[in-house]
């Protein structure tokens, strides 16, 4: 029975099944996307909530040095992108990482990966919807209209702000001296209508935009593509304006010290920076709507990563050059805030308007990706058949699209932005780890290597991985005292779990070094695997605990339904 959990679908079987679906069930979708369209989809997904929202708190934690963290994370994503491109060129099906895991790691791993892709697409879209709502409310306020505060934020943030304000009042602190976020949250909770003893605080704009985007994705890929291309062009123009205008107001002394809170401050921003790159792999979910997926998807992934990394670094440097990084803590609209600080209120208004556009395109891409993953899982029998239903007129996965809208829209009413970002980031890194590992396993069979039109440049990792481990351990623990302190920290202190995570990472690195020698593994997928694992260790014990609960829920669904209904079981 154990072996049946790891049953795999061969590449030939997946391609043959796809041909049968298109012929017998009339389930084919419209092939309408080229390299430019796919690149724009990647840019739309990557440049979203992070550059207009999360980048502020990340800069507050790490200072200007966060720009280097963007580069480091981009390199990790580039290694991962090679692996995604390798799979996409071999298995041109819409299931993305889920399908790739099914061919290389087995069904139960594919299922839990597909379950965690919910975190990357649907759950992360909750964060995008919340950020969109913030900028939209600011824009409406700028036009002279006011939306009641209790209709523009989540319940948890409002309640926390109310409690913080009450504590401040008890200490004699004046309301006007509290931060903007605390004042807004207090007002929302205090003025909200009370229903059965519960303060009704809900993010209504986030629900409305989710419903609108879901409708657009529902009615067709051509309409979605055209709208996305327009939004991305506008987004890129505005970001170039932000960098171009902001450069004249940069004060170089604000870049010193470059890392005001040290390396720990920079690493504290790992979740936000990883969240910034969520979605570059969403390109692979549109494989069945690409004109030439085996050629175009790899190219589009690389172009999207390069373009977005350059923009992230430039925006971070301009932001921290205009506003001291410490002043950015808790600021949810940092780009608009920095222009307000230098008196350019007109430019701040333009930024707020453009953020609404930018975040709309990010919402569009995430809402596009999740239904196509569900569709593929349903075809394999792991989800009910309704999830693979194709609309007879619009040629889109209709039921899956509607369910994605519900899954994003309802939590967006009440969810907290920071909590959603952290959970989404660790789920995404987990997917990246399995894709990189899947390529290593897939390529152990020379026959599989011959079936792909995209080849990862082969560099023998035999000794590099082990030497890198030794060098890293020397830098991390340079003396016997450091080793002793590190060992004792496993059993005492508040960071025990974090030390266990780091030790597990080094142990996995040791195993990979062994297999690199015995199996002569390719270096690029190994680097992708190690870098993503390291980033996961920096997510903190609390996020790991929540992630484990999420995975346990996924396993319960698998064993209660998916295992028995799988087509491979039949």
Keywords:
24 helices; globular; 1% strand; 2 strands; Amino acid/polyamine transporter I
Question: Can you walk through the features of this model?
Answer:
The protein has 570 residues and is mainly α. It has 3 domains: 2-144 and 205-433, Amino acid/polyamine transporter I, CATH 1.20.1740.10; 155-201, no CATH class; 464-565, no CATH class. 71% of the residues lie in helices and 1% in strands. It contains 24 helices and 2 strands. It has helices spanning 2-5, 11-24, 35-46, 49-62, 66-90, 97-104, 107-142, 155-170, 180-191, 204-218, 221-246, 262-267, 270-276, 293-322, 334-341, 345-379, 398-414, 417-442, 446-450, 464-476, 480-488, 496-519, 523-537, 541-565, and strands spanning 194-195, 198-199. A two-stranded antiparallel ribbon has the order 1-2. Strand 1 (194-195) and strand 2 form a beta hairpin. The longest helix has 36 residues, at 107-142. The radius of gyration is 24 Å and the shape is globular.
Question: How are the SSEs ordered, and which strands pair?
Answer:
Layout: H1 2-5, H2 11-24, H3 35-46, H4 49-62, H5 66-90, H6 97-104, H7 107-142, H8 155-170, H9 180-191, E1 194-195, E2 198-199, H10 204-218, H11 221-246, H12 262-267, H13 270-276, H14 293-322, H15 334-341, H16 345-379, H17 398-414, H18 417-442, H19 446-450, H20 464-476, H21 480-488, H22 496-519, H23 523-537, H24 541-565
Helix pairs in contact: 3-11, 3-14, 3-16, 4-13, 4-14, 5-14, 5-18, 5-23, 6-7, 6-18, 7-10, 7-16, 7-17, 7-18, 7-24, 8-9, 10-16, 10-17, 11-14, 11-16, 13-18, 15-16, 16-17, 18-23, 18-24, 20-22, 22-23
Protein name: Amino acid permease
Domain Cationic amino acid transporter C-terminal: 523-566
Subcellular location: Membrane
């Amino acid at each position: 029975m154990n072996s049946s959990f790891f049953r795999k679908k061969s590449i030939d079987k997946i391609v043959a099944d796809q041909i049968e679906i298109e012929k017998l069930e009339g389930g084919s979708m419209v092939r309408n996307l080229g390299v430019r369209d796919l690149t724009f989809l990647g840019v739309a997904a990557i440049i979203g909530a992070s550059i207009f929202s999360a980048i502020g708190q990340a800069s507050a934690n790490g200072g200007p040095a966060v720009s280097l963290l963007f580069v480091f994370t981009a390199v990790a994503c580039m290694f991962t992108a090679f692996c995604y491109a390798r799979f996409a060129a071999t298995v041109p099906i819409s299931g993305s990482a889920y399908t790739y895991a099914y061919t290389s790691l087995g069904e139960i791993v594919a299922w839990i990966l597909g379950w965690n892709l919910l975190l990357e697409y649907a759950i992360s879209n909750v964060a995008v919807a919340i950020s969109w709502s913030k900028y939209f409310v600011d824009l409406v306020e700028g036009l002279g209209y006011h939306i009641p505060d209790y209709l523009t934020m989540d319940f948890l943030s409002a309640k926390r702000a109310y409690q913080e304000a009450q504590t401040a009042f008890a200490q004699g602190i004046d309301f006007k001296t509290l931060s903007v976020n605390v004042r807004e949250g207090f007002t929302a909770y205090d003025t909200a209508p009370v229903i059965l003893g519960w303060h009704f605080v809900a993010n209504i704009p986030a629900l409305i935009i989710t419903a609108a985007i879901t409708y657009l994705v529902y009615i067709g890929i051509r309409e979605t593509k055209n709208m996305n291309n327009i939004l991305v062009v506008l987004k890129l123009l505005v970001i170039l304006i932000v960098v171009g205008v902001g450069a004249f107001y940069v004060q170089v002394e604000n870049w010193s010290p470059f890392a005001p809170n040290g390396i720990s401050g920079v690493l504290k921003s790992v979740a936000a920076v990883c969240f910034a790159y969520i979605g570059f792999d969403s390109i692979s979910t549109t494989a069945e709507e690409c004109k030439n997926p085996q050629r175009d998807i790899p190219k589009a992934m690389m172009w999207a990563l390069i373009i977005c990394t350059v923009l992230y670094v430039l925006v971070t440097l301009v932001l921290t050059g205009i506003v001291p990084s410490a002043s950015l803590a808790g600021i949810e609209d940092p780009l608009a805030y920095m222009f307000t600080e230098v008196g350019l209120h007109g430019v701040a208004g333009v930024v707020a308007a453009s953020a609404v556009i930018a975040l709309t395109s990010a919402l569009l891409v995430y809402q596009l990706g999740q239904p196509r993953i569900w569709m593929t899982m349903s075809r394999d029998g792991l989800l009910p058949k309704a999830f693979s239903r194709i609309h007879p007129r619009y040629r889109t996965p209709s039921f899956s699209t509607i369910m994605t809208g519900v899954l994003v829209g309802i939590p967006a009413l009440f969810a907290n932005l920071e909590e959603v970002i952290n959970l989404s980031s660790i789920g995404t890194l987990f997917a990246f780890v399995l894709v990189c590992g899947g390529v290593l396993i897939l390529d152990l069979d020379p026959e599989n290597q011959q079936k792909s039109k995209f080849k990862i440049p082969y560099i023998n990792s035999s000794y590099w991985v082990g030497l890198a481990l030794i060098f890293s351990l020397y830098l991390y623990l340079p003396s016997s005292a450091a080793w002793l302190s590190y060992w004792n920290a496993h059993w005492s202190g508040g960071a025990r779990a974090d030390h266990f995570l780091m030790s597990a990472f080094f142990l996995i690195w040791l195993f990979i070094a062994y297999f690199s020698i015995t199996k002569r593994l390719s270096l690029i997928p190994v680097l992708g695997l190690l870098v993503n694992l390291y980033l996961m260790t920096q997510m903190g014990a609390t996020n790991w605990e929540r992630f484990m609960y999420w995975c346990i829920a996924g396993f319960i669904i698998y064993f209660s339904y998916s295992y028995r209904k799988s087509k491979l079981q039949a």
